[in-house]
Design a protein that fits this description.
- It contains 13 helices and seven strands.
- Helix 7 (about 150-165) links the parallel strand 3 and strand 4.
- It is globular.
- By secondary structure, it is α/β, with parallel strands linked by helices.
- It has two domains: about 15-200, P-loop containing nucleotide triphosphate hydrolases (Rossmann fold); about 205-290, Helicase, Ruva Protein, domain 3.
- The strands form two sheets. It has a five-stranded parallel β-sheet, sandwiched between helices. A two-stranded parallel sheet has the order 6-7.
Length: about 300
């Protein structure tokens, strides 16, 4: 990082951006995730804020580092964990974190089952996450007001203290369904006051999910035939209306099962063309329970 010239009247932010390598991380995020334009825009804005804040700090124009704790709200399979990892890379690159490490946990990793068990569990997780990002999925499960003997409140109090006192060495990202997260913040205002950035992750459209299927298969040297692509679109349309739909996660699960059927189909025919080993056909998808009327669980 080059020092700024004393008394400089201008700052080359383009040069600062190139040196920081932000565009590389953003381009990588764009390549990994289909769609999510609003999310990518927010991440770009946060990265811009942090870059300018770093320049301002070097110029003596800012004293306290910005609060970086975040809330990611959206349905399963909308890219929240992937974005958290990219955010950690950006924060590390800009010098706001010592490491790009992301520790992903749920209630079970933080809350104990008996008196005296929760504090050590929570503190151990925080110790592992220090210097990086602590990503708490389905964070609302920490708070169970219907159970007066629940130990989640103890974990919440420890987290709130750490988020305030060690905010220069730990970024906490709380994630979960939008409506449940809103109720969680309503019953735990301490969390809301410590969250600087709230990012909503929209569901993918059918077209975007088909594109995700193509991308996932390409990463494994597979492709959809024209009929397979039509079957994938039909699968998504039906699966979306069934319980436990999880956007890209449901697409990934469907492709895993389609690959199993494709492999079995080829083994029953004996000799096959190498090119056929790379193609997922409509029959590999249409055999799903989704098309038989039964409810798919995953």
């Amino acid at each position: 990082m080059k020092p700024l010239a004393p008394g400089a009247e201008t700052v080359d932010l383009d040069a600062e951006r190139r040196e920081a390598g932000i565009d590389t991380f953003l381009a990588d995020l764009d390549a990994k995730l289909v769609g999510l334009a609003p999310v990518k825009q927010r991440i770009t804005e946060i990265a811009s804020l942090l870059l300018v804040d770093r320049v301002r700090h070097r110029l003596g124009l800012s004293a306290d580092p910005p609060t970086l704790h975040m809330s990611f709200t959206g349905n399963p399979g909308t890219g929240k964990t992937t974005v958290a990892m990219t955010m950690a890379d950006i924060l590390h690159r800009l010098g706001y974190l010592r490491t790009p490490r992301v520790i992903c946990v749920t209630r079970d990793d933080l809350v104990g089952e008996y008196i005296g068990h929760t504090a050590p569990k929570t503190k151990e997780v925080i110790k592992r996450a220090l210097g990086g990002v602590l990503f708490i999925d389905e964070a609302y499960y920490l708070h169970r007001p219907e159970n007066e003997r629940d130990y989640g409140q103890e974990a919440i109090e420890i987290l709130l203290q750490v988020m305030e006192e060690q905010r220069q060495d730990l970024v906490v990202i709380l994630a979960g369904y939008p409506d449940r997260m809103e109720r969680f913040f309503g019953s735990n205002p301490g969390f809301r006051s410590r969250i600087a950035h709230h990012i909503d992750f929209p569901d993918y459209s059918d077209d975007e999910l088909v594109d995700i299927a193509v991308l996932l298969l390409d990463q494994q040297s597979y492709q959809l035939s024209a009929q397979g692509r039509d079957a994938m679109r039909a699968y998504i349309g039906r699966r979306r209306s069934q319980p436990h739909f999880a956007n890209a996660r449901s697409v990934r699960n469907a492709l895993d099962r389609a690959r199993l059927r494709q492999a079995h189909r080829h083994l029953t025919t004996g000799v096959v063309a190498v090119a056929d080993l790379m193609v997922i056909e409509d029959v590999d998808l249409l055999a799903s329970r989704v098309f038989s009327g039964s409810i798919a669980i995953h």
